Amino acid sequence: MSVNVFTFLVLLAGLFANEATCITFAVLLTLFGATAAVALPALGGAAITPALLFLPFLTLHAIFARMRAREPFTLSRPGTLLALIVIWGLISALVMPRVFSGETQVIVLDRLSSRSPRLYPLRPLPTNVTQTVYLFGHLACFLSLRTLLRAQGRLAIFRNAVLLVAMLNIGAGMLNMIENLLHLPSLLDYIRNAEGYGLAIEYSLGGLPRIHGTFPEASLFAYYSLPLFAFSLSLWTARAELRYSPYVCCGLLVMLLLSTSATAYLGLLGYGVCYACVELPKRRVPKVLALVAAVGCVVVLGMYALELDATRHIDRFVKATLLDKAESGSGQERAEWNAQAFRNFVETYWLGAGLGSCRASSFPLVVLSNLGVIGAIFFSLFALNVCRSPYVERALATSEDFAVRKAASDATVAALIGSLVAVGMFDLGVSFYMFAAAASSFSVAQESESLALEPSHA
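The chain above was modelled as a monomer; its predicted structure follows.
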């Protein structure tokens, strides 16, 4: 195990944070997704990111908050379902690689090597340990943040923290783009110090520079940015926060469009369809956003009508990122991963090969191949309960709190859409579970009001 300056910075932040600033720090640290605060060579080069290292402090603050309020510990429905996922994940990681040892071939990635993943007979792996630990950390994150958000005004703190980290993410993307265009040494390389992640940085695609910000590759930058975009867009649509959300939303949209990532384009398309189906009938789409989209379409169509030379670059770029993606070496490799993951699901009699045993290129196949049909049912119910939570308890929430919870629910949906093409392991990231916690949060005031509405029986 090795530590660095990020280790001490995180520990320092945790020691001096109170409950309110703890929420802000927890959200901000998710930006450092390729930073190793602690390196673990003994576990195949795995790393503990700053966000994971900060989780014990978040958990302690949540425990102290419960103790001061003298409230019994209870699990919400989403919390119960996530706990069941963790329990089944632990059982599968311990049992399945041994029960089905050698009976199926799994895709294994050597973190410390730049070689492509290869097929190996199923056996216990270090990733069974790391993915299980990450999942326990995500459960702690979900329960702790949900507890801290119960106090009055905490959802506003969470909202401000998300908008701040979105601004920093935009800044990192812009810095990355400038460095690529001017061929300058990358200052962000000092942040991307996690050797175990096997950085796959490509500086151009289709003649345009790629943007990956603080993350190891453009697809992960897009996967992280897409929920932030959905969160800020929801606040803007609801007119719940108009000082920063419009600018953050537009900035993130520009970064996603310039990222040259298929994850960004497919994610925006999928979420855009969902957004349009929900908001267009209500006529709540911001006029500025609609105007920008319309002008963009008119400009591109006009360029093609005039047969400008710039359209050749657009054609080459679209082919490189979308049309030829399936035929590329990377696209074929990822298709093979998905096919092999489905074979793992079938060859383990729908039980899965165990958490962390195999990887794919799409999260649904990750769930099926690792946790089988049982894990898929648990996770589907968890996601459904999280996304519908703001609407179920809407009558008891203030308009401001409902707007933040709905924005967090929309961010969760956007993350799930992005995971269809961007996530290769069961780890969805700490930020996903933070949005899930905010979406399903239930304040003390709301709980008291709900109890007061119940008829008393003398």
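DSSP finds 17 helices and seven strands in the chain.
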